[in-house]
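Tokenise the fold.
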Amino acid sequence: MTIQRLTQVEPAVVNKMAAMLKCQKPEVIQTHFGIGLNTWVKLREGKAIRHSVAVRLLQRLQRDQVI
């Protein structure tokens, strides 16, 4: 069994992301960030998410010049 690596996204980044959203609907979160609602909830709560998802998310935010 493979152990999943987890990564915690900095709270400042999550705050910038939250400021971009007009609502918390799953389709809005998916469109803006490419993540699901469960991942968004984990980020807001300061919990770690799968490393691969965090890398993809941070790359997307850099591409979109959010961070």
DSSP finds four helices and two strands in the chain. The first strand starts at residue 6 and ends at 7.
